[in-house]
Amino acid sequence: MADTTEIYLCRAGQDLKQGKVEYSDSITNKADAEADAIQRCKWNKKLAKIAYYAVNTEGDFRIILTYNNPNIGNDEPEKPKKVKKKPVKKPSLVKRVIRAVTGKDGGKKTKTKKAKAKTKNAKAKAKTKTKTTR
3-class SS at 37? Predict the structure, then answer.
Protein backbone atom coordinates (compact mmCIF):
# COMPACT_ATOMS: atom_id res chain seq x y z
CA MET A 1 0.00 0.00 0.00
CA ALA A 2 2.70 2.49 0.97
CA ASP A 3 4.77 4.02 -1.79
CA THR A 4 6.38 6.60 0.46
CA THR A 5 6.30 7.76 4.06
CA GLU A 6 5.68 11.35 5.13
CA ILE A 7 7.48 12.36 8.31
CA TYR A 8 6.17 15.39 10.20
CA LEU A 9 8.68 16.94 12.64
CA CYS A 10 7.21 19.33 15.22
CA ARG A 11 8.67 21.40 18.02
CA ALA A 12 6.93 22.07 21.34
CA GLY A 13 3.56 23.83 20.88
CA GLN A 14 3.54 23.35 17.11
CA ASP A 15 0.77 21.60 15.12
CA LEU A 16 1.60 18.77 12.73
CA LYS A 17 0.68 20.89 9.71
CA GLN A 18 3.03 23.65 10.85
CA GLY A 19 5.97 21.29 11.31
CA LYS A 20 8.66 20.33 8.85
CA VAL A 21 7.79 17.57 6.36
CA GLU A 22 10.29 15.01 5.11
CA TYR A 23 9.81 11.96 2.90
CA SER A 24 11.31 8.49 3.13
CA ASP A 25 11.03 5.33 1.06
CA SER A 26 12.93 3.17 3.56
CA ILE A 27 10.49 3.43 6.50
CA THR A 28 7.61 1.04 5.92
CA ASN A 29 6.62 -0.35 9.33
CA LYS A 30 6.21 0.68 12.97
CA ALA A 31 9.56 -0.76 14.13
CA ASP A 32 11.51 1.18 11.49
CA ALA A 33 9.56 4.35 12.32
CA GLU A 34 10.19 4.02 16.05
CA ALA A 35 13.94 3.47 15.57
CA ASP A 36 14.06 6.47 13.24
CA ALA A 37 12.11 8.65 15.70
CA ILE A 38 14.44 7.82 18.59
CA GLN A 39 17.46 8.62 16.41
CA ARG A 40 15.96 11.93 15.23
CA CYS A 41 15.23 12.97 18.83
CA LYS A 42 18.88 12.29 19.73
CA TRP A 43 20.06 14.43 16.80
CA ASN A 44 17.65 17.29 17.41
CA LYS A 45 16.80 17.81 21.09
CA LYS A 46 14.13 20.42 20.28
CA LEU A 47 11.79 17.98 18.51
CA ALA A 48 8.67 17.35 20.58
CA LYS A 49 6.57 15.19 18.24
CA ILE A 50 7.22 13.09 15.15
CA ALA A 51 4.44 11.52 13.05
CA TYR A 52 4.86 8.94 10.29
CA TYR A 53 2.19 8.53 7.59
CA ALA A 54 2.23 5.90 4.83
CA VAL A 55 0.99 7.51 1.58
CA ASN A 56 0.22 5.75 -1.71
CA THR A 57 -0.09 7.09 -5.26
CA GLU A 58 -3.90 7.48 -5.03
CA GLY A 59 -3.49 9.90 -2.09
CA ASP A 60 -4.70 7.48 0.59
CA PHE A 61 -2.77 7.55 3.83
CA ARG A 62 -2.57 5.69 7.10
CA ILE A 63 -0.71 6.50 10.27
CA ILE A 64 2.30 4.34 11.05
CA LEU A 65 3.49 5.95 14.29
CA THR A 66 3.21 9.11 16.36
CA TYR A 67 6.21 9.53 18.66
CA ASN A 68 6.34 12.05 21.53
CA ASN A 69 9.83 12.93 22.71
CA PRO A 70 10.01 11.96 26.40
CA ASN A 71 13.08 14.19 26.99
CA ILE A 72 11.60 17.47 25.73
CA GLY A 73 10.77 18.78 29.23
CA ASN A 74 13.94 17.43 30.86
CA ASP A 75 16.42 19.62 29.00
CA GLU A 76 19.03 21.45 30.99
CA PRO A 77 18.72 25.22 31.00
CA GLU A 78 20.82 26.79 28.31
CA LYS A 79 24.17 28.09 29.43
CA PRO A 80 24.50 31.86 29.24
CA LYS A 81 26.63 33.04 26.38
CA LYS A 82 30.07 34.25 27.23
CA VAL A 83 30.39 38.01 27.08
CA LYS A 84 33.24 39.01 24.85
CA LYS A 85 35.51 41.64 26.27
CA LYS A 86 36.39 44.58 24.09
CA PRO A 87 39.96 44.39 22.89
CA VAL A 88 42.37 46.80 24.52
CA LYS A 89 43.06 49.70 22.22
CA LYS A 90 46.68 49.78 21.17
CA PRO A 91 48.46 53.11 21.71
CA SER A 92 49.30 55.08 18.59
CA LEU A 93 52.73 54.88 17.02
CA VAL A 94 53.70 58.31 18.36
CA LYS A 95 52.75 57.36 21.94
CA ARG A 96 54.67 54.09 21.68
CA VAL A 97 57.79 55.93 20.42
CA ILE A 98 57.52 58.54 23.22
CA ARG A 99 57.09 55.79 25.80
CA ALA A 100 60.10 53.92 24.42
CA VAL A 101 62.34 57.02 24.42
CA THR A 102 61.28 58.69 27.67
CA GLY A 103 59.83 55.82 29.62
CA LYS A 104 56.63 57.84 30.19
CA ASP A 105 53.30 58.06 28.46
CA GLY A 106 53.26 61.31 26.49
CA GLY A 107 49.48 61.34 26.14
CA LYS A 108 47.25 63.93 27.76
CA LYS A 109 45.39 62.60 30.79
CA THR A 110 41.76 63.58 31.24
CA LYS A 111 39.88 63.49 34.49
CA THR A 112 36.54 61.85 34.98
CA LYS A 113 33.55 63.83 36.23
CA LYS A 114 33.95 62.40 39.73
CA ALA A 115 37.63 63.33 39.88
CA LYS A 116 36.84 66.86 38.67
CA ALA A 117 34.13 67.22 41.33
CA LYS A 118 36.50 66.00 44.08
CA THR A 119 39.17 68.49 42.96
CA LYS A 120 36.62 71.31 42.93
CA ASN A 121 35.40 70.39 46.43
CA ALA A 122 38.96 70.16 47.75
CA LYS A 123 39.78 73.62 46.36
CA ALA A 124 36.64 75.09 47.91
CA LYS A 125 37.49 73.58 51.31
CA ALA A 126 41.05 74.91 51.07
CA LYS A 127 39.72 78.42 50.38
CA THR A 128 37.37 78.32 53.38
CA LYS A 129 40.21 77.11 55.65
CA THR A 130 42.47 79.95 54.55
CA LYS A 131 39.71 82.52 55.14
CA THR A 132 39.02 81.28 58.64
CA THR A 133 42.71 81.20 59.64
CA ARG A 134 43.31 84.86 58.66
Answer: helix
